[in-house]
Design goal:
The chain is of the alpha/beta class. It contains 5 helices and 5 strands. Strands 2-1-3-4-5 form a 5-stranded parallel beta sheet, with helices on both faces.
C-alpha cells in the first residue's frame, strides 16, 4: 500500500481560535498532552495575524468571536494565497443550517459542536484528519 505517513504530533502546529479562555485552555491542554504544538487566538483579528505568521497545519475556529466572526476569518483566510490552503475545522456551539452550509462553502473540513466534542474527541478528530 502506498499510504502517506501522518506527521508526528510534535511536528503539527495547531491554531485554536476561541474567545472563552477556559474552553480554549481545556482543549489546548489535551492537544498539548497528545504532543501537538498549540497556539490560541481569542479574537478573529488575532487569529488572522497568527495564521499568516505561523502557517499552522490546521485551525480550529469558533464562529462567534470578538472583532471579527469566525466565518469572516475563514473567508479572509481563503482569499489570501498564503493561507488559502490551511485546513480549517469549525468548532462552535452554533449549529444553524445556514452557518454550517456557509462554512462548508468557504472550505471548512468539518463543523463540530463544542457541547458534543470532548477534548479527547477533538484530539482523535485531529489525528483522523492528519491521516487523510
Amino acid at each position: 500500500m502506498n499510504q502517506r505517513a501522518a506527521p508526528a504530533p510534535d511536528d503539527v502546529n495547531v491554531l485554536f481560535v476561541e474567545d472563552d479562555a477556559s474552553v480554549a485552555q481545556m482543549y489546548r491542554l489535551k492537544l498539548e498532552l497528545d504532543g501537538y504544538n498549540v497556539d490560541v487566538a481569542a479574537d478573529g483579528l488575532v487569529a488572522l495575524e497568527k495564521a499568516r505568521a505561523m502557517h499552522p497545519d490546521i485551525i480550529f475556529l469558533d464562529v462567534r468571536l470578538p472583532k471579527m466572526d469566525g466565518l469572516a476569518v475563514l473567508e479572509a483566510l481563503r482569499a489570501d494565497a498564503a493561507t488559502a490552503a490551511i485546513p480549517v475545522v469549525i468548532l462552535s456551539n452554533w449549529n444553524e443550517k445556514e452557518l454550517v452550509e456557509r462554512g462548508v462553502k468557504l472550505g471548512a473540513l468539518d463543523h463540530m459542536i463544542k457541547s458534543q466534542t470532548t477534548p479527547a474527541r477533538l484530539s482523535q478528530r485531529l489525528k483522523d484528519l492528519l491521516h487523510n
